[in-house]
Amino acid sequence: MRIHYFQHILFEGLASIGQWANQKGYALSATQYFENSDLPDIQYPDMQAIDWLIIMGGPMNIYEHDKYPWLKSEKEYIRAAIDAGKTVIGICLGAQLIADVLGAKVYPGAHKEIGWFPVQLTGEAIQSDIFGSLPAQLTCFHWHGDTFHLPDGAVHLAKSEGCENQAFIYDDRVLALQFHLESTAESVADIISHCRSEIVPGRFIQSAETMLKNGDCFFDGIYAAMRGILDRLDGDRFPVCGRDL
């Protein structure tokens, strides 16, 4: 299988998704916007050359077109991938971009979520093939301020106390995750190092020390959940071993 991914900033890569793909022996290619800031220099693969598109996170907002002119072409490619029947996965900013191209509103949320907080599966998620074998509640890593409305036709999968729309799936193959289920110890340390200025007092904002300390309790659970979701999207339907620690 051929997976192409969009990476918006140096310190937000595939993390555990890359580990899964490498273990499967799948081909990986990338569009790295932080290395190609000029719109004419950005090259996208032919749609026939990819099977999956994965859109990672980043500190920008989906509506900052003046600051990030490549957002327009990125959204056009995401829309084309969805229309072409590809499996499309968005993480955080990537989830917001999917919501936007599907016609839903993306806007600043009532709360920023930064740290380890539980998400709860909806009834629809518990009944779904993709999410149904996951724990009903799972503590995940978060780092976001914006949120989104659900696109028409999307199935609401998860919510948290601080954010109602944490995940959705569209057409059984387009998955948007607001939380960072792909996080590893390295990726959490990287985002804390580069975005420490965002760690300010807030109801759903943890200290850097708390985030780093608590990660050891939760990485196994989110790794199992991420791997299980990817396996199911890939066509392997077997039970996931994972629980909220």
Written overview of the protein:
There is one protein chain. With 245 residues, the chain is an alpha/beta fold. The protein has a single domain (2-233), classed as Rossmann fold (3-Layer(aba) Sandwich), CATH 3.40.50.880. 29% of the residues lie in helices and 25% in strands. The chain contains 6 helices and 9 strands; from the N terminus they run βαββαβαβαββββαα. Strands 2-1-3-4-9-8-7-5-6 form a 9-stranded mixed beta sheet, sandwiched between helices. Residues 237-245 have low confidence and may be disordered.
What is the number of E strands?
Answer: 9
Q: Shape from CA axes?
A: globular
Query: What distance separates the N and C termini?
Result: 33 Å
Question: Which runs of at least 5 residues are low in confidence (pLDDT < 50)?
Answer: 237-245
Shape-level CATH architecture = 3-Layer(aba) Sandwich
Gyration radius over CA: 17 Å
How much helix is in the residues?
A: 25-40%
Report the CATH C-level class. Alpha Beta
What is the CATH topology assignment? Rossmann fold
